[in-house]
Amino acid sequence: MVRLGKKIDLPYKLLLFFFLNKSLFSVLPVFFASCTPKQNNVGHHAPEFENIVWLNGPEQKISNLLGKVVLLRWWTDGCEYCTHSAPSLNDWNINFRDSGLLVIGMYHPKPAPQDVDLNEIYKFIRDKKFVFPIGIDSDWNNLNNYWLSDGPKSFTSVSFLIDKKGKIRHLHPGGEFHKDTIIGHEKCISDYWQMDSIIRVLIAE
Fold first, then answer.
1. I need a surface site. Which of 54, 103, 142, 146 has the fewest CB within 10 A?
2. Residue 73: which of 202, 205, 192 has the closest Cα?
3. Whose CA is closest to 182, among 64, 54, 80?
4. Number of helices (H) and strands (E), helices first, in the chain?
5. CA geometry: angle at 97 spanning 96 and 101, to 5°?
6. The pLDDT value given to residue 41
């Protein structure tokens, strides 16, 4: 049998606990926010490029690209996903460059940041038939700013779509995308058409 006096004992202790530990609860939202993964900058303004060597054209800056839709793709040599996705980048460049799309290929050396041979990079560019601007992110600084800073990822060959106001509107988390009908590549095809649709929407805005 529980005495009547006990009815107020538990609520009293709870109130006392909350009062004495109010400083703890005030920091819990900060703690949980710090433990929650970032949403990879979608909806935020694209970070400015830093320490980039530019090939296939002049220096590019996010601040100078307002008014354009930007498709930003990290790629490297020896990457089958990059090779399979290259024709899509070339097609979008040809089909939409006169409508306000700028494709940028950001080369990053694998398996880790390191100095690169520009002559080798030019060879890779020719092999993939890239005619749009290519940035060399040899120290992965920009890849980290855009993609890796909030934790490990399955792929580094990530793609971002940036709108005319410089805001990131979509990301493809790596791997490949293409429109070729190949059994087992249904997601690649779906990802391609999703990207294509978003590009059209952003251009029309």
1. 54
2. 192
3. 80
4. 6, 6
5. 80
6. 78
By the 8 A CB rule, do 36 and 68 touch?
no
Q: pLDDT tens digits for 32-51?
A: 333 334 445 789 999 999 99
Cα–Cα distance between 143 and 138 in angstroms, integer?
A: 10
**Helices 22-35 and 9-20, axial angle in degrees (round to 10):** 70
Q: How many whole angstroms separate alpha carbon 71 and alpha carbon 80?
A: 20
58, amino acid identity: P
Q: Output the six-digit token pair for 45.
A: 């303004």
Place of tokens 């490949």: 176
Global confidence as pTM: 0.80
Give tens-digit pLDDT for 76-127. Answer: 999 999 999 999 999 999 999 999 999 999 999 999 999 999 999 999 999 9
